[in-house]
From TrEMBL:
Residues 23-162 form the Activator of Hsp90 ATPase homologue 1/2-like C-terminal domain. It comes from the Bacteria. Belongs to the AHA1 family. It comes from Tunturiibacter lichenicola. This is Uncharacterized protein YndB with AHSA1/START domain.
Length: 169
């Protein structure tokens, strides 16, 4: 059972905000966002795994990932194999309080290919970490809502990972 609380907020058509409290110290949450070995364990919605994830978390560093699913539900009863490449550049890295990076789907993914900017802040209080996630801008509400669904599913996986690390499993 998850120990995290969730407060997704859609501010405008062009912005997405999600606030989540993880029952883990800030250093663990920061490491999960910046260490490629840990990112591979949670980055991507539940139906996907992170493949070929690379990340150099420093200003000007780049990240890249392939979200892979062997049985993505297309909504019409069909399940198919899917690879979606994504990536971006780190703009700000202020350990362990603030992370800013760009996000873009690769050309040919079939998804909107414009660049968005993600800003995440981490605050610790009594061993718990509040993560404030902000992504902007989206061209359509459908694109924003798709990201909200995907990120929330990813954050559930992040919560699972943090619990395992915290409990020493």
């Amino acid at each position: 059972m998850s120990t995290a609380t969730v407060s997704p907020t859609v501010r405008t058509r062009q912005e997405l905000e999600i606030t989540r409290v993880f029952d883990a110290p800030r250093e663990l949450v920061w490491k999960a966002w910046t260490n490629p070995d840990e990112m591979r364990q949670w980055f991507g919605p539940r139906d996907f795994v992170a493949r070929n994830l690379t990340a150099v978390a420093r200003p000007g560093g780049r990240w890249r990932n392939c979200l892979h699913s062997d049985g993505f539900d297309t909504g019409d009863g069909e399940k198919r194999r899917l690879d979606l490449w994504q990536g971006g550049e780190y703009l700000e890295v202020v350990e362990p309080v603030r992370l800013v990076f760009t996000f873009q789907w690769d050309e040919g993914s079939g998804l909107p290919e414009h660049e968005t900017v993600i800003t995440i802040t981490f605050e610790e209080n009594k061993g718990k970490t509040t993560m404030n996630f902000h992504q902007t801008f989206f061209v359509t509400e459908e694109d924003r809502d798709g990201h909200m669904k995907g990120w929330n599913s990813s954050f559930e996986k992040l919560d699972d990972l943090l619990r395992e690390v915290r409990d020493g499993r």
